[in-house]
């Protein structure tokens, strides 16, 4: 899911990564709206809100939105920075897993803070929403970067546009049998459905788990980060077993 | 211009945006501070189609009663936002306090009783003198209710002037 890069990735790699990350993004977004009355994966909307607040002369609110957008930017920047700077320095899987672990830490921080220290002040709300937007920036930057922009888990405006274009493409018979287009359609559809499912799960789950919903998101991120670790270990074990068998046969 | 210089300018711009936004948040008047004090209800506006003036005023009083049934104290028209997060009315009869919280980017006023949300308003405008709240209600009536409040000191000064 994480260790392959760009065109080396299979459809299955992208589907698994897209589904899990979109599900976690949907959960975080709805949980954040419920707790803080602020979206965490709605950057397009925030650009409009930023302009609106400035035009109304609400400098404080405008600055808060500007800070959030900049933190999302910083998250995406850091994600790709780690990936490209890590090339040749350390294992590719490690460079891809670092942004996921940073995202994990940001969301864990929010969960722990809400549980132990939250006093419901505006300052805390601003910082915690900022941490979640930074986490979403990390995630979106990672998925877009390693999948050659095929997977964007919080960019639903672009996704809806791409889906609509594909559906219209399928009005031509020959396109319905074009594997590349069909695969892309399946990937986008899965991302959209899992994002909505994550949102539903986040909304309903919050009623029962409350702040625990953030820990659940962390668990999903751990699965994403450790899945390839498990797979690499499995491949290594199979390889060593075969190696032993070959040595036995030679003897 | 040299590309290396442009890249450095990008980093500088990013740092300036972060520092600038943090500076404004730190020094500008926060809605949480602005809201503290005594506010007098000045106006209730209902955005609604197909209603005559008479119908509308009857509708407004009924709606006001129904919407604020959980926040009876506020029927008296005076909202006192205390520094410790308690919302009171000058003629409050209830012992159980209503707590107020500012959420989002400072654009949502949430009211809670016993830790349970009883109402949340969109803060449409907040200044030292005026507070405009919007309420999206889920009754079978189309529209938004706008509540206009004025800071007490401001109101007193105006009265003295007259």
Automatic annotation (TrEMBL), chain A:
Signal peptide: none annotated. InterPro entries: DUF1275 (IPR010699). Keywords: Membrane, Transmembrane, Transmembrane helix. The keyword Membrane applies. This is DUF1275 domain-containing protein. The chain crosses the membrane at residues 20-39, 59-84, 96-115, 127-146, 185-207, 213-233. It comes from the Bacteria.
UniProtKB/TrEMBL annotation, chain B:
It comes from the Bacteria. This is Lipocalin-like domain-containing protein. It comes from Sphingobacterium arenae.
